[in-house]
Specification:
With about 70 residues, the chain is an all-beta fold. The protein contains no helices and 5 strands. It has a domain at about 1-40. Helices cover about 0% and strands about 40% of the residues. A hairpin with an 8-residue loop joins β1 (about 1-5) and β2 (about 15-25).
């Protein structure tokens, strides 16, 4: 079996296509091949792991500092 990978995006390594090709050969030299194409796409959005601050109204001199925000992308 021969497997090749082709990236579908220059910016997302999780979007690619795998092609698998199997070749059978009998004792008389006759061959047959089968091919499978698998398309892999990252369609899952990242998730915040930090609680995002709620909207608020404050006085001009009481603007809170923006917190650091983290997340995961599985």
């Amino acid at each position: 079996m021969v497997e090749t990978r082709r990236n579908l995006s220059a910016t997302c390594a999780s979007n690619y296509e795998l092609t698998r090709v199997w070749t059978l050969t009998d004792p008389c030299g006759n061959t047959t091949t089968a091919k499978q194409i698998i398309t892999i796409q990252d369609t899952t959005r990242p998730n915040f792991t930090t609680v995002i601050p709620k909207d608020t109204t404050v006085s001009c001199d009481k603007v809170p500092t923006a917190p650091a925000v983290t997340g995961t992308d599985v």
